[in-house]
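FAQ: What does a ligand-bound record look like?

Like this one, built around lysine:
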Amino acid sequence: MRFTGTMKVNEKGHLEIGGVDTVDLAREFGTPLYILDEAEFRKNCREYYHSFTEKRPDSLAIYAGKTLLTTAICRLVDEEGLGLDVVSGGELYTALKANFPMHKVFFHGNNKSPEEIKLGVEAGVGRFVVDNLYELYLLNDIAHAQKTRQAILLRISPGIEAHTHEYIKTGQIDSKFGFPIETGQAIDAVIRALELENIELKGFHCHIGSQIFELDSFAHTVEVMTEFMAEVYKNTGFMTQELDLGGGLGIYYTAGDNPPAVDALAEVIFNTLENQCQKLGLKVPRVVVEPGRSIAGPAGSTLYTIGAIKDIPGIRTYVAVDGGMGDNPRPALYQAKYEAIVANKANAKPVKLVSIAGKCCESGDMLIWDIELAEIKPGDLLLISNTGAYNYTMSMNYNRLPRPAMVLVGGGRAELIVRRETYDDLLRHDLIPVHLKNRKVAQIY
Ligand SMILES: Cc1ncc(COP(=O)(O)O)c(C=O)c1O
Ligand SMILES: N[C@@H](CCCC[NH3+])C(=O)O
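The answer part, i.e. the structure of the complex:
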């Protein structure tokens, strides 16, 4: 397994993160356990801050909350000077409870409810990223009722096919997100937005997908968007002030993943944008980016305890852990690949080819197929790296498995930032109707 962030092996041969022994973490907090490396999370935020905001002070990097969000994480993001992309009332509420500055919040979503829109307008979010006409008019009405003018970006579907998994592509025409350029719906939305009294159009947003390695895809996106901006200017006289290019930068999960650096991404974006604006006679707009995975992904890992080991001679050895698709559905959803290490024997040589199974009642609940691990026995600890993005936020209670706790580690300390769910938490919303309250003996017909 390739080490990320502050990972190292200590004198006991145990894996350590943020100066904390993972064996101690398992003892104190139990497993499965999400571990967030504070220094790595902050470093990744800072890379965006330096490459964007410091280079062009009017530009803004906003962290995509869908990746990994808790109130403590909102505090980290705010301290590092980033804004926040929220995509639901729940994410917005989390930001509100964490006292996140609302003018740096961008509210996304392809079907915001009237209640969510009201919450956002009342909270004073900086931008609504409007996805469709229904939302545009609803937002105008709600802003009117609140006697305010809401600043917005229109989400544009640029018609770009990013080279990534089918389920995480978002920029192509046949997509539930945004106004397509090619069909004329994007320019139509601009004309309508400009007519609305309680809407202040600032510019455009697009997001082509996630886990992208080719910087060319981002350059191409800037080209398509600036051509659209020029078309808008020609047809309406509206000069785009803000261009939000979404997130999408890929990260290392397994050998063969070679993500570009954040400053290389920034350079490609700024260079292409300046050339294009000059060529097309446009004012260079303020740039916004919305990274998620490349900030949280490498900062997170998940610690499991190994249980049953099943050897099917000549076929495969299944090593089952105490979590699985409940805490990390990505392998089942996207055939995502991960690396792992036996955390309490971190110096031991990999000697055996095994596959890591989760504990859900689902054959597809496999976390890793075919990985070489050190000699293992039940009770050993397995750490899967790079699980910071889209694991906790996509976790579920399938099979009534309680969700893991999350600890923030750094400087030799571990602080709980999400407590482990209990069986009572699982029952929290259950109700028994009166006619089922008293236990009756089953009738046999
Ligand atoms: C609109 C939008 N912005 C930002 C992101 C964050 O993307 P990533 O985690 O790939 O950086 C996503 C997720 O793909 C998204 O849909
Ligand atoms: N959840 C996806 C990314 C989707 C991002 C949202 N547009 C993943 O785990 O890779």
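Follow-up question: can I read anything off the structure? Yes, for example: The radius of gyration is 24 Å.
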